[in-house]
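To the structural biology subgroup,

Please find below the input and predicted structure for Prepilin-type N-terminal cleavage/methylation domain-containing protein, which we are adding to the shared reference set this quarter. The sequence is reproduced verbatim from the submission form. If anyone notices a discrepancy with their own records, reply to this email rather than editing the shared folder directly, so we keep one authoritative version.
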Amino acid sequence: MKQTRGMTLLEMMTAVAVVAIFVGLAVAGVQTRIGGQRESTATRELWSSALRARQLAISTGQPVRIVVKPNVLQPDGRKYTVARWEQMKCGDDVSTPDPWGVDKCPITACVNTTCRDTPACCSQTGPDIVIPATMDASKINNLCFLPGTGRPVLQQDCMKGLLGQPGKIAEMAPKDESIQFLFTSKRAKSVLMVEPLTGLSSVMDCDSLAATTSDATRKDARLAAACAVAPP
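Predicted structure (tokenized):
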């Protein structure tokens, strides 16, 4: 009667090693997909936040600024870099804000602080957008939509005292390439392109067909030019 041959220790160790390699590759693939989804979600939410900030600045007559802040404690007990919009009060004093005025938006005491540090400086704030560790969204920090007009500037003080000077406002408007979202993963960078007169924005990926095609009829020249510029 023929005997059945069992596995040797070396063969068993080899089989275990092979299985471990495949499991490791599978886990890495899942983590990469999850990381990519988080980056995409954060990018879309930042764009949505910019649209909402503009809308509020027009409808409320108060400047609305996007603030990016590191090490913010979240409900899961961990700290992350987060972004959110902040609708800043206008007037002479945080306790008794006055109606809108060219020289009173935002309140002076609130210019160099955030509403996370000084909640009384804001009428309302948006939800926290968690920025993945593989993503750098710092260039959208201090993007401010001006009261009444929704025009965009990259200024922490939201052009306080200069709201009646269109030339100064135009100088501080973000250029096409100003707001870039960078990734340490293999993902290509994205740009948030904000129209300097209207404040309307769009977010585009630098590996999209519109940015990379050689077909002039399908190419977005502004996007391609913005993507070609190194991060400011």
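Summary notes: The chain is about 30% helix and 20% strand. The two ends are 79 Å apart (CA to CA).

Regards,
Lab coordination
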